[in-house]
From TrEMBL, chain A:
This is Ferredoxin. It comes from the Bacteria.
Automatic annotation (TrEMBL), chain B:
Homotrimer. The two-component system 3-ketosteroid-9-alpha-monooxygenase is composed of an oxygenase component KshA and a reductase component KshB. It comes from Nocardioides albidus. SUPFAM superfamilies: Bet v1-like, ISP domain. This is Rieske-type oxygenase. It holds the Pfam family KshA_C. One of its GO terms (biological process) is lipid catabolic process.
Length: 100, 384
């Protein structure tokens, strides 16, 4: 059962554009996680995980075991470093040609 | 060349869901219900009755008696049960009718809608699921042991009814970087979102604008470090470190809501402040009251926008905007049947907003505003 129902087909196209376009696969240099990344600028980063990647990351797994609370959800530093490496190597194009 | 390639964009207002979200919802401070009297709470398109039985348990049932529809919130607590004012049928916290004083026996089918309850962080939470599943204790918000100790001030709790908006408007705030400048009068200097499973988090650092008189986020002397996580669809814990002229205060804000109808909800928020060392109770209470006031004002700034905007299913975004589409994809998981939850609704997603350009433009605008103000002050007589 759908909940918030769009009334036009263009809305679905937008949804795809904003959530799926231009994602590039990047592998973590320290574990088996492979995520999909988009960069609109040097400071912007969008990272889409999958369940498989999430369970490969030991850092996130460790945090899941601890008590909940502030900061448990913050990014894995090793994955972020791997993404920076991939960007430096030119594997992830930087820039939003489509305005986003 | 005229721009015929880009037709005018239409606003897709979509349709709002027919159901209310699955998850834990906070009804208020548990102590507010612990007086042996029935209490009415509007929620989920009906009215709920909340009471504490003689055994000390807090109970929540649908507010309308299944006999002839009497209003249980106007009834009376008798022993552990709630008694209906119409014909005195007695209902237990397990949803079963326990006694009908004038009847030989209670019909076996005499069961009403009950809600599982948990008291967490001093607040009464109930599980709501249109599919009727058993409460999922794995997705409860975490305990805040420090806040419940005398290191922190007691919750200062407030309630506000919002009409004419779906509660998703409130959720959208999680990914909305730019509104902190325009609506809350602060420069968001760092802004990041992480959605993961049933949680959605906003990490933000901000500094108040010097050209506005805003309280809360907008005080020019204060810098904020904020981590705000939704645990499920309606309960957010916001950890705030407020640096006011070098004096750092830790504030915990709970922001939660109960949907009341398809286009209305009740917003509730509570504030607790870590008591600064060396200050007496009265001063601590004063500081807590000030933060309550200013963050309360912050909510009102949002409310003024919600009350006048329209719903939009197809927001048009620019590079400096946060991940609204992904946030809503996350939020959708609470509105579909469990069997229909898609992996992308719960898969971890991280987004860092580039705030550098926005802050350059905003600082220039603020400098201009300050210069204009100085010029008009110089031109006008001081005592006018
Ligand atoms: S309607 Fe409640 S007892 Fe009759
Ligand atoms: Fe807001």
């Amino acid at each position: 059962m759908a909940s918030f129902v769009p009334t036009s087909a263009e809305t679905l196209a937008d949804l795809r554009r904003y959530t799926e376009d231009r994602l590039v696969e990047v592998a973590c240099l320290d574990c088996l996680a492979r995520v999909r990344v988009k960069k609109n600028s040097d400071h912007h980063t969008s990272v889409q995980w999958s369940a498989e990647a999430r369970s490969a990351c030991q850092e996130l797994g460790r945090r899941d075991q601890g008590p909940g609370g502030r900061d448990v959800h913050k990014p894995c530093a090793r994955l972020m470093a791997s993404i920076d490496d991939a960007v430096r190597a030119g594997a992830v194009p930087v820039g939003a040609y489509d305005g986003y | 060349m005229t721009d015929t390639a880009t037709p005018a964009r239409s606003l897709d207002q979509g349709t709002t869901p027919l159901r209310f979200a699955r998850g834990w919802h906070c009804l208020g401070l548990a102590s507010a219900f612990a007086d042996g009297k029935p209490h009415a709470v509007h929620g989920f398109g009906t009215k709920l009755v909340v009471w504490q039985g003689g055994d000390g348990e807090l109970n929540v049932l649908d507010g309308y008696c299944r006999h002839m529809g009497g209003d249980l919130t106007q009834g009376e607590v008798k022993g552990d049960h709630i008694a209906c004012p119409f014909h005195d049928w007695r209902w237990g916290g397990d949803g079963k009718c326990k006694e009908i004083p004038y009847a030989r026996r209670v019909p076996l089918r005499a069961r009403t809608q009950r809600y599982e309850t948990v008291v967490r962080n001093g607040q009464l939470l109930i599980w709501h699921d249109p599919e009727g599943s058993a409460a999922d204790h794995e997705v409860l918000p975490p305990e805040l042991p420090d806040v419940m100790s005398d290191k922190y001030t007691p919750w200062s709790w407030h309630t506000r009814e919002i009409n004419g908006s779906h509660c998703r408007e409130l959720i959208d705030n999680v990914a909305d970087m730019a509104h902190f400048y325009y609506v809350h009068f602060a420069f968001p200097t760092s802004f990041r979102n992480i959605f993961d499973g049933h949680t959605a988090t906003q990490f933000m650092e901000s500094k108040g604008r010097p050209d506005t008189m805003g309280g809360g986020y907008g005080d020019e002397n204060s810098t904020l470090k904020s981590v705000a996580t939704y645990y499920g669809p309606s309960y957010m814990i916001n950890w705030l470190e407020v640096d006011y002229k070098g004096f750092v205060t830790e504030v915990v804000l709970v922001n939660c809501h109960i949907p009341t109808g398809p286009e209305s909800f009740t917003l509730q928020y509570g504030i607790s402040v870590r008591k600064p060392e060396g200050l007496d109770e009265q001063t601590c209470a004063y500081i807590a009251e000030r933060y309550t006031q200013s963050f309360g004002d912050g909510f009102l700034q949002d409310v003024a926008i919600w009350e006048n905007k329209v719903a939009v299913q197809n927001p048009l975004l620019c590079e400096e905007d946060g991940p609204v589409y992904q946030l809503r994809r996350w939020y959708e998981q609470f509105y579909v049947d469990v069997a229909d939850i898609k992996p992308e609704m719960t898969d971890r997603f991280e987004f860092e907003v580039d705030t550098t350009k926005a802050n350059e433009y905003w600082h220039a605008e603020v400098a201009e505003n300050l210069a204009k103000r100085a010029a008009s002050e110089a031109a006008a007589p001081a005592d006018a």
